[in-house]
Specification:
Blueprint lengths: L2 H8 L20 E5 L4 H12 L3 E6 L2 H15 L8 E6 L5 H15 L7 E4 L18 H26 L7 E5 L3 H4 L8 H5 L7 H21 L12 E5 L14 H8 L7 H12 L5 H5 L3 E3 L3 E2 L5 H6 L10 H13 L4
Parallel strand pairs: 1-2, 1-4, 2-3, 4-5, 5-6, 6-7
Antiparallel strand pairs: 7-8
Length: about 350
């Protein structure tokens, strides 16, 4: 890792985003699911996709917040010469596997037998939360809300993603997984420790728990891409890509101490619309292919490939037969075991 690698993620090139709301293609007829879409990056992404004609499903926890967000989005474009799409709220709590399954089914029912899903944005999550509660299934909160809940949602939506990919241009159907600058700054050696997989409650530091969950999203993106086959349960033809959308002024910082928040974090934060631009590159750029996804390539803010990840993390996404540690696949299998009663 170099100083430049950190610097370019905190302070990306000015006007460097190749996809913005001004040049997004017409999305009429396309369907999108955005988790955590009522605020922050997810809100901006829902807004931009809606303005481009997309059919957007906002999967988030709180009905009041979602309804207010949808009203703001629609009011923003009212009276403007914009051919908007549609936007619909589906309640979902990623920390509760039963709730995730209900939300996935509600989406599938809404789309019907001829429905489609062009991109799933696994955006929602929690920041580092000291003394976070256990989930309804008794699991560690950070890894569940940020990673395993999204794993379950993706598994449940894999059939419709695969069906859409079969009738779409190659590599155009995508699943976007949100990571973080803390993947490389504060995650332990190997990204996720063996001890954590054996006992998730063995780790007590909220910052490490958060960082591991974001590493987990990168690992899951890589492994989903590698596990695909024509007849298997993990789909076919769907590109999964992980990356750091950047650092933004959103409510993910609500559990962070004010001293850290105001004096160390805030000076580096940007408007969350730039995070949406990063997701748009991950979802629509022709530079993002199945080959890149299977290699574990990692996107970063404003839509670029990472200049060079930590060596131990690169070893983690390689199998032992390739000279790596196999931790990425180990985590993927761990998630499958966690959700087996809900798929």
């Amino acid at each position: 890792m170099s100083v430049y690698s950190y610097w370019t993620q905190f302070f990306p090139p000015r006007n460097g985003a190749s996809f913005t709301e001004d040049n997004l293609p017409d999305l009429a007829g396309k369907v999108f699911v955005v988790t955590g879409g009522s605020s922050g990056i997810g809100y901006e992404l829902c807004r931009v996709l809606y303005a481009a004609g997309g059919k957007v499903y906002m999967l988030t926890r709180t009905k009041k917040n979602a309804e207010e967000a949808i009203t703001r989005i629609k009011d923003h474009y009212a009276g403007k010469d914009v051919k908007t799409g549609s936007i619909q709220f589906i309640p979902m709590d990623l920390s509760d596997f039963r709730n995730v399954k209900v939300a996935a089914q509600q989406f599938l029912d809404s789309e019907g037998p001829d429905g489609r899903l062009d991109a799933l944005f696994n955006n929602a999550g929690t920041g580092g939360w000291k003394d976070a509660p256990k989930t309804p299934q008794g699991d560690e909160y950070h890894i569940t809300a940020n990673s395993v809940g999204h794993y379950l949602l993706t598994r449940l939506l894999t059939p419709i993603l695969t069906k859409t990919a079969a009738k779409s241009p190659k590599d155009s159907v995508r699943v976007v997984w949100a990571a973080s600058i803390l993947v490389e700054m504060t995650s332990p050696i190997g990204g996720i420790t063996k001890e954590f997989l054996q006992d998730p409650f063995s780790e007590k530091h909220a910052g490490v728990l958060y960082a591991q969950s974001k590493v987990g999203n990168w690992f899951l993106a890589t492994e989903f891409s590698r596990h695909q086959s024509e007849s298997g349960p993990f789909g076919s033809g769907v590109v999964h890509i992980g990356g750091n959308p950047g650092s933004y002024n959103t409510n993910i910082w609500r559990h962070v101490k004010d001293l850290i928040k105001y004096y160390l974090v805030y000076p580096t934060l940007r408007d969350p619309v730039y995070g949406a631009y990063t997701y748009m590159w991950m979802s629509f750029s022709k530079d993002v292919t199945m080959q890149e996804a299977k290699a574990g390539n990692y996107a970063t803010c404003d839509g670029r490939w990472h200049p060079g990840q930590r060596a131990d993390l690169l070893l983690a996404i390689k199998g032992k037969e390739e000279g790596g540690t196999g931790r990425s696949k180990e985590f993927f299998d761990w998630c499958e075991e966690r959700v087996k009663d809900f798929v």
